[in-house]
Amino acid sequence: MNPPKTDARRHHDPEARGFASDNYAGAHPEVLAALALANGGHQVAYGEDDYTENLQRLVRSHFGATAEAFPVFNGTGANVVALQAVTDRWGAVICAESAHINVDEGGAPERMGGLKLLTVPTPDGKLTPDLIDRQAYGWDDEHRAMPQVVSITQSTELGTLYTPDEIRAICDHAHAHGMKVHLDGSRIANAAASLDVPMRTFTNAVGVDILSLGGTKNGALFGEAVVVIDQDAVSHMKHLRKLSMQLASKMRFVSVQLEALLAKDLWLRNARHSNEMAQRLAEGVRAVHGVEILHPVQANAVFARLPHDVSERLQKRFRFYFWDEAAGDVRWMCAFDTTEDDVDAFVAALKEEMAR
């Protein structure tokens, strides 16, 4: 059958790739094929479709028999819905100062979710029980928002990883104080690939109560999910999702993408590849005199410090962002479609600009 005709025109170079964000990547061909498979005919709206039903089976295979997935449109929506589900109106969330919910979500958890973020500075983006204790107090003080949740990110915003034992220690500590644990898993696949363990090893197996399951950064066109692990920890998730404007009418097109990633090993293949490209990039950068890698490269991100003028010239050749412009810190991200040639070309360009 010939492909359907369209009046759309391509407005970009499909061979152009940069290192700004894994969100810049397109959708994986297997995900696009799954979307086409789900198209055609009528399916019940708002999540009562066959694809969302099958997604529940897959999610339970990855996150345990009690897990339930609530597909949403995006990562911020997933985080806001998840955190609302485990806090009261007077509740607060303890998180790293660098956490995405604090830095990159436009205040949505506080403005839209109606909760307070209690932040803690961390050297590597990771919380510990001792760091949590800097904010874990005042439950009976009506003048202070009540700490009810600890939110961690895996992999972190600095590209570092928690070990399963580190997350278990956080969960045990939080639960001992009557708090729940939320895991922001926008790059959970990269963490599992790097640790070489199933996702359950550092989620339901160690006490995480609820998580945001990422898809977009790992090959999906759009769509994430809130995964409730402890059903007793939350209430009225369906109502919260709708109230937060995250209920997709044609939910089958979100669910089938997550199904394509999770049914076999596409999620893992994509994550392993982007991690491997980050390692290749880090190895090339380490050979460039005058460039400093700032954090351990454990997932698909490389953080570096180099002269500001070099970064500005390099940005004209490859897209990437400053992380701390005043300090000259930058972030380079690899994606599932980053190639070895992309990495080698970037390292060559970096060497040229550093030599000028």
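The above is record 1. Record 2 follows with the same two-line structure.
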Amino acid sequence: MKYIITYLFVVLLFPLLSFGQTHKIDSIIESKLTYTSEKPVHNILIQIQNTRGTKSFHKGINHKGKDSILVSGQEQFKAASSTKLFVATIILQLMEEGKLNLNDKASKFLKNIAFLNFENFHLYNKQKFSSQITIEQLLSHRSGLADIFNDKEEDFFGILLQNPKKTYSPKSIVELYFKFKLNQSAHFKPNEGWHYSDMNYLLLGLIIEQIEQNSLAESIRSRILEPLEMNETYFEFYEKPTSKNNLIHQYVGNLNFSEINTSFDWSGGGLVSSNKDLITFITSLFDLKLISKNSLQKMTDVQYTKEHEYRYGLGMYESKYNGKTYYGHYGFYGTYVGYCPETKTAISYSINQALADFNRHTFVSGILKLIE
């Protein structure tokens, strides 16, 4: 597999960032890049924007090796699980429109989808609990559903690498779920714990399609991307790319996932975006351009997940960076988008390596500390 060795650092900061600070940030970034290890980090993209400021600092660097490519400063990347923020936003929009309630049972919208076999979707101690799952529990990962990617990671990767170009659909993802007998492996009864599962968001994606009577890709585009003019964002494999040859390569160990059909991510992580677009989205969300204040409060009403883990609300993590509280979501390939209501600061980054040898939270905290 041929690696594209690219180094990109894009940052939109506050006014009057000194040369010394810039040099320190460069050094932090450069210290994390590695091209020859089993977990290469070929590029890092980061953008930080304070909506109180009137000026910005912007910088782009690319590695000058023989395989390097020119970069524009706003390459696209797989946003991964940050997609869940978009799905959660649409669910809350539908709630505001009176088309669903958060305490509605998911079965109300899913029971007639034959391939779901929803009655048998959640078995705990050999008892069926699918009928008890609510939309709110899906949003907050409190349904108890098992997950293909977390609970059967080795089995899933084995199947994936046998045919890396295979195109998946919600139906084929559900077929894998039953093939792995994950329906019989629920972690707890609904609302009796927390377990992160993309299956929650697969079901939410199907609920949106049942209500809207069009594809999830169309709903995301008409409800979020077009109103916000997010021209660098699209639902990969489910609609045409918004630009060509602008997608950064992202890795899992030494495996280049840009050479794999990742249509299996769908509603749990299928968006391609850029830092610019993701910051547009997260600031618009907190500026109440997409949902009401009441709905936003529901999203940010976080609860503890597991010991030593971040708190989670409705499609949204709470994170602390240097003592400041941010709300947003992390993604598989080392991505994140979040917003700090206290300082009105938005941050989006992509490390582009799922298994990086460094702590990305500590890494970003160090950059933020230099510019706060």
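The chain has a mean pLDDT of 88.
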